[in-house]
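User: Show me sequence and structure for the first protein, then do the same for the second.

Assistant: Starting with the first protein.
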Amino acid sequence: MGFAETTAELTASPKVWTVTGVAGFIGSNLLEALLRLNQRVIGLDNLATGHAHNLSQVQAAVGPSRWKNFTWIEGDIQDPSTCQKAVRGADCILHQAALGSVPRSIARPAESNASNVTGFVNMLWAAHENKVRRFVFASSSSVYGDAAKLPQVEENIGNCLSPYAVTKRVNELYAGVFAKCYGIQCIGLRYFNVFGPRQDPNGVYAAVIPKWISALIQNEPVYLNGDGSTTRDFCYVANVVQANILAATTPSAEAVNTVYNIALGDETSLTSLFEMLRQRLAPAYPHVRDLQPVHRPFQPGDVRHSRADTSKARRLLGYAPTHRIENGLEEALDWYVSMHHQQQKAAVGA
């Protein structure tokens, strides 16, 4: 079944969904998509890295009639009782809550482990105790580590290069064990460099696209680790939303209790990414035409090249990405720019 057929079926027969990390970047995009499909959503977030303004933006986008189908719980997945409350009555869990960022995990590994591993087990156990049918969770391309062969295939992983990567690999192992021991249908989605609206441009651990857009607009240095030949498989958030919904609803027994690459299946060098952003910003910000990136050494945990083999997700889930990096940037750029200016005004006002 394709994505259009799946969404039509969901609209006709709504389900109850739990989305953890619902105030975050990917979680809020999932929330918006589900509410537009007239689903009921229970959202959990502790606002450590998520933002209340993301929920406000979703509320404005979907309108009051759909927003009433959303139940918001502010709480932490490290608290087992909160996890139990969040999954009660749910048909499916989309688990996005985590402390992201390789550098953060290197600086504070115990904190990453507490959220990403202990919190993950709490959610799995709550799913088991409440008899939730399907548990879909965010894994990461970081689990490939030092595996040099491209494209990256799900069955061929290397040695982890950061504590964050370890936590995501452990998530996959726990999901497999819970499937065997308790019969939970688990599906892991290895995200590759997701970008799009509601991605945080601020902070030490901001992702490269929003961070570079803000720096270019403000005529600040754009730091590029290495010589610029490093590649990433950038995946627009709409592709990730599609993958989550397909994973949550697939009727195929072969498709569950496994992991999938969720990406475009292409490589973009950081030098090329810089040029794409500069070209798109130049009409409104002429000063960016003359800007050049500032090169600095590779950082600990950096993976040099990344490109996913998405054939497994296409074959078993019906995954068919709708956005390449170019049209994803076109669609998201106005949001990035608008959010940058809103946050600049807020900073001045403060």
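Switching to the second protein now.
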Amino acid sequence: MLSALLLAAAASQPVPFDAARWTLADPEARAMTYLGRPSLFLDNGVALLRDSSFGDGTIEFDVALHGHPSFAGVVFRAASDRDYELAYLRPHLSRRADALQYTPVDNGAAAWQLYSGAGFTAAAELPLNRWVHVKLVASGYTARLFVDGASEPQLTMTSLKRPWARGMVGLWGGLGGANFSSFVVTPADTVAPATRPLDAPPARTTLTTWELSPAYETASVSPDALPAARGGASWTRITAEASGLVNISQYRASVRSAAGTAKGSLDLAFARTTITSQRAQRMRLVFAYSDGLRIFVNGRIVFSGESAFQSRDPSFLGVAALGPDAVYVDLRPGDNEIVLAVSEKFGGWGFAARLEPLGPEYEPERR
């Protein structure tokens, strides 16, 4: 592989879009002249620059956005065409709060429904049908995105989610895509950060320790029943992010077959944790999820919900937020098992939960 220093030495020249330099994971990708320039068109996939090695530094390119809903972005620190960091533009949402978005992509799954708001989404004006300059500056676990010559970053990513590692750089287009031109990468001569900087420490009530089952398909395993007969050795112990969020795609890949997808089958995983209570008490279980959720407490189902994209109305995004949803659960003295059955169509497979104590007036009735 080319070293970062060799890439930096060649960085003043745009990388030509020829097959010898790029790996194209998009059946519609093609080099073409567009708006008077040589360009690469991406419709639904990723193009990775072969032999690139990028940890920190600057990536710049021009993009021509078309006049229809579409996505266009920059890929960095890619381990493969299924695992990378992604910052992208949504031209059909120009000037809105989520015109720009950052998401990790793990096992081929973007997680935009799990990561939204400050540090993940931002507003920007995204002009159509002309060349728009885009610059990304990455350093450690932060990155800044500048669009159309802005002097200040419109999107500052304060907590990149994938582990820091040198990887390939590239471009990404989706849902009709865009044309890209003048791609220039300038790696910085840096080393991996010693540690990942902590976000705010987890609240005392946040549930951060879980065991995760293998991935199933709802066509064959129902989310409405516990997988009691499935071996415990195959469960994986995991720790949630400080916010309480678990991005399941970091640990499990989709198992949906082509036949199952046609029938509307979803990916499914179970997450379990044990709560030890000193006495019988009622508590408030606050949760977030994407896309479907069943909650079991001591073997009894206490909640069922669906929050997939457009599942509630045409404008519903299905963004997961910890706070609006909660159920009240009765814990018994000793160990209590909480199990979440989380199903996924697309856009982010994950959950978060916290368990809040209540006052004595909420104690369960003694029987």
